Amino acid sequence: MSSNSIAVNAAVVTVSDTRTEDTDSSGRYLAEQLENAGHRLLHKIIIKDDTYKLRALIASLIADDQVQAILVTGGTGFTARDNTVKAVTPLLDMHIDGFGEIFRYLSHAEIGSSTVQSRAFAGMSNGAIVFCMPGSTGACRTAWEGLIEQQLDSRHKPCHFVDKLKNVHQPGS
Q: Which of 38, 100, 111, 163 is in the most buried spot, having the most CB atoms within 10 Å?
């Protein structure tokens, strides 16, 4: 990251009933990409797909004065155990509708009409941005490369989300 860009403090949350640190390729990918982009990974957590435990975790990350971005992978599909939408949506102060729309547009080129089963979404809460995406590593790559990387880059024009995050300090300030 260049000297005139701003590093973001981030958490990566993998929502899964089966993944472990050894098998969490999606969470590992997101953590690596954050760090490669010059951001600070404060937390990497794997949590069971339980509505209330997930909601409590995300609420605690949103409330943490240090956490500015939360990347959630998993739990956005259409099975009975996909609870990310139900758990996280009530916590958002503002929805970023374009994230899910553009994610599905980009994903369509890769997986065709199966993208309609993605409930990827994002929003802002308490000065933190929350990106929620499917659990596959391919979907995380699509979300990172197509959207998140640029929106967490303070140099991206014409706009990005970094200047809207809590406790953002401009370089040299």
A: 100
